[in-house]
Amino acid sequence: MTNLNRRRLLQAGAALGAASLLPGVALSRTTDTVRVGWGKGSITQISKQRGEFEKNLAAQDIKVEWVGPFPNHAPSLQAVVGGSADFGFWGSTTPALAAILAGSPLVFTQFLVYAPRSTAIIVKKDSGIDSVKDLVGKRVAVNRSGLGEFLVVAALEKNDVPRDAVEFVYLNPPDAAPAFGQGKVDAWSMWSPAVDIARQQFDAKDIFFEGTDLDFLIDYSSLVTQRKFAEENGDLVRAVIDAFKIEGNWMSQNPLESEKLIQNEAKYDDSVRDHLVSLGRKNNFYEADDANFLTDFQKAADWLAERGILPQSIAVSDHVLRVPGV
């Protein structure tokens, strides 16, 4: 008898007991290997480097294959839809919603909110730009339908600047950094650690900082997979979620060690690392069917749709799938 078949027999009772909680999700699995997307500066990078994530899953007879790195969530989602990865890399909910609206069979299986938030719109100190109002007639680099774009939209709205008064330049982070450094764009809306590196490397400053200048949260980190995969592999999905929770809690409790792991990969200065440590960021996880969280998420999706960042409205509760524990 194979490990997979033996495990299915052991899980049969638990699966039957949980079926009434979430019809359509099998608390078993069709594979012993999970392919996880990863991106630099994220919980997935730390999970990959520490090795504890793989150990925790190995104890449940699950092998981990890392796919990436991905520069942002959109290509990570493409890998999931295309079948080269089972999970995205805990990226932004906004491009995931855009992909779902475009017909991708994706579901959210877990959410993560870190605080304080550190995404910012930066400009060079010698640019003559001192506020969001000064962006009129300027070029701003953002990632399309992602955290960078929506932060600029929110900043313009808060400062009564017409959206069409600013030119949006859609670039993925690896292309946006040199464009900003070379003066091809006047401003860049970006998240940590890339924005912190650029702030130092290009002698830049903030003109809008998410943690203090944004009045509400519109975008969240999310663990995304294909609906069919989640429905057929509830046991595996639950194991992955729980292993990531362990990583996120470790990061919250060990900020210096966490930032050192990211720094080792990104090769930035200790001053950038120490700044990130000083933020004292904490990770908070939410199950996919958390009613209070989904209410906030729906408000965020409505806001994005009303402003054309998402092409139309979407009922977020139709695209979440919670796998209960056994």
Query: Alpha-carbon distance between the termini?
Result: 23 Å
Q: What is the number of independent domains?
A: 2
CATH superfamily descriptor of the largest domain: Periplasmic binding protein-like II
Q: Biggest β-sheet: count, sense, barrel?
A: 5 strands, mixed
What is the number of strand segments? 11
If strands are numbered along the chain, what order do they take across the biggest sheet?
A: 7-6-8-5-9
CATH architecture of the largest domain: 3-Layer(aba) Sandwich
Q: Could you list the spans in which at least 5 consecutive residues all have pLDDT below 50? A: 1-21
Query: C-alpha Rg, in Å?
Result: 20 Å
For this structure, the CATH topology of the largest domain is D-Maltodextrin-Binding Protein, domain 2
Question: How would you describe the shape?
Answer: globular
How many helices? The count is: 14
Structural class call reads alpha/beta
CATH class of the largest domain equals Alpha Beta
| Helical content class | 40-55%
Strand fraction equals 15-25%
Return the string of H and E elements: HEHHEHEHEEEHEHEHEHEHHHHEH
What value does the average pLDDT take?
91
Pfam families: NMT1
Domain Solute-binding protein family 3/N-terminal: 33-254
Subcellular location: Periplasm
Protein name: Putative aliphatic sulfonates-binding protein
Structure commentary:
- The chain has 2 domains: 3-116 and 219-319, 3-Layer(aba) Sandwich (D-Maltodextrin-Binding Protein, domain 2); 120-213, Periplasmic binding protein-like II (D-Maltodextrin-Binding Protein, domain 2, 3-Layer(aba) Sandwich).
- The protein has helices spanning 3-19, 43-50, 52-58, 73-82, 93-101, 147-158, 173-181, 194-201, 210-213, 227-232, 234-253, 255-266, 270-278, 291-306; strands spanning 33-37, 63-67, 91-92, 106-115, 120-124, 139-142, 167-170, 187-190, 204-209, 221-226, 282-287.
- The two termini are 23 Å apart.
- Strand 6 (139-142), helix 6 (147-158) and strand 7 form a beta-alpha-beta unit.
- It is globular and about 60 Å long.
- The protein is of the alpha/beta class and 326 residues long.
- It contains 14 helices and 11 strands.
- GO terms for molecular function: ATPase-coupled transmembrane transporter activity.
- Part of a binding-protein-dependent transport system for aliphatic sulfonates. Putative binding protein.
- This is Putative aliphatic sulfonates-binding protein.
- Pfam families: NMT1.
